[in-house]
TrEMBL record:
Domain of life where this protein originates: Archaea
Segments crossing the lipid bilayer: none
Alphabetized SUPFAM superfamilies for the sequence: TPR-like (SSF48452)
Segments annotated as TPR repeats: 158-191
UniProt key word Repeat: yes
Protein name: Tetratricopeptide repeat protein
Pfam families, A to Z: TPR_10, TPR_12
Organism: Methanosarcina mazei WWM610
PANTHER family: NEPHROCYSTIN-3, TETRATRICOPEPTIDE REPEAT PROTEIN (AFU_ORTHOLOGUE AFUA_6G03870)
Alphabetically ordered keywords of this record: Repeat, TPR repeat
Gene3D superfamilies: Tetratricopeptide repeat domain
Length: 256
């Protein structure tokens, strides 16, 4: 006879709490075993809230153990489930929060893999996040989180492609990121985060055009990048590092 959902939820919570205790005791491997029991009970009980908490914890534990590919699989699994459920219940805040969390986790892993020189897994992270994010933007084109995530991930993917000599592919990603930032700044022209992100991508394009020996295009992007830095400096005149960066950029621009 199948167990009742209430009993299964209680069982899931019990195993989840045991997971936390084991983590605090410094026993991550045992905590994963307890977490698997919690996840199984949550799935049987059809409790999305508990299931997403267990998947979040599993990804974090695996990441802390350096088992990054397994952590990635967990975040992607959670992302795909939450995306499917959100499409069936578009107003559900739990699903929205879970999607945002998993997109960020996948993007962060992409950055970790990139720093470690793992091109394949880094690219996989960025492209997986972008695929889901683009679907979300198709139905929520004005959502600023999805726009920002897409812009930042395109920029990161551009940096990754540039680092392995895929110059034209990198250029395409940078230009798409720039389009997103420009759209955001049309609605929020004073937003320092959007300005900073646009500046970063303009500078990346300047570096790319310099490598291609396209001096005028490089100069144009570096100049626009510098103009944004000057705007940011006026907003925060006490930022000495920013002032130093502006001086360095001016010298660099004069030498082109």
């Amino acid at each position: 006879m199948p167990e009742k959902p209430d009993r299964l939820r209680e069982e899931a919570v019990k195993h989840f709490n045991r997971t936390i205790d084991l983590m605090q005791e410094g026993k991550p491997e045992e905590s994963l075993e307890a977490l698997q029991k919690a996840e199984n009970a949550a799935q049987e009980a059809k409790s999305d809230a508990i299931l997403f908490h267990t998947l979040k914890a599993r990804g974090q534990i695996l990441q802390s153990l350096g088992r990054l590919e397994e952590a990635l699989d967990t975040y992607v699994f959670s992302l795909k489930i939450s995306y499917k459920l959100l499409s069936e219940d578009p107003g559900n805040e739990l699903y929205k929060d879970t999607i945002r969390l998993n997109l960020n986790n996948i993007g962060n892993l992409g950055n970790i893999f990139q720093r470690a020189g793992n091109f394949i897994l880094s690219k996989q992270c960025y492209e997986t996040g972008l695929e889901i994010c683009q679907k979300l933007l198709d139905s929520h084109p004005e959502n600023t989180f999805y726009q920002m995530y897409a812009g930042n991930t395109l920029n990161n993917l551009g940096e990754l492609l540039f680092s392995v000599g895929q110059i034209e592919e990198a250029k395409e990603k940078y230009e798409k990121a720039l389009e997103i930032y420009e759209k955001l700044l049309q609605n929020y022209p004073e937003d320092t985060e959007y300005l900073s992100d646009k500046e970063m991508t303009l500078n990346n394009l300047g570096i790319l055009f310099s490598q291609k020996e396209q001096k005028e295009a490089a100069k144009k992007n570096f100049k626009e990048s510098l103009e944004i830095l000057e705007i940011l400096s006026k907003k925060d005149p006490r930022d000495q590092k920013l002032k130093e960066e502006i001086s360095l950029r001016r010298e660099k621009l004069e030498k082109i």
